[in-house]
Amino acid sequence: MIDLDESDRAILRAxxxxxxxGTGELGRxxxxxxxxxxxxxxxxxxxxxxxxxxLVLDREALGFGVTVFLGVKLATKGRVSLDExxxxxxxxxxxxxxxxxxxxxxxxxRVVARDLxxxxxxxxxxxxxxxxxxxxxxNVLMSEERLPGPL
Length: 151
What we know:
Elements: H1 6-17, H2 23-30, H3 34-46, E1 66-74, H4 82-90, E2 95-100, E3 107-113, H5 116-127, E4 133-140
Antiparallel strand pairs: 1-3, 1-4, 2-3
Helix pairs in contact: 2-3
């Protein structure tokens, strides 16, 4: 764990809003010099606090208007390895995230589709044929709000 001061937290908040900011612009916004900002960003990166930058795509603009969360319970415990299930699920382009969870289901998948008939096709032809797939529960995303987190 790294000690963060208010300037570090301000850098993280600014980069969370716009990860494309360079250290010069970031420093100007926060009242820091470019070299001081660069050193802080470098320290945060080396400590593992910052580990890359993401490009956020607008799924709807790309034609993927439906997002569904699937709870997947494996049917054949012990027969199918978790790695085999994860590899097969990762090979499905519509599967955005694969989370191994504790609880009612073994996995939680985030799946995108063009519309509900497209999702049904993905479910029947790809998800239900995954090695070891048993019970599946679908929850269609109605809306999403990103919360800023603890900083």
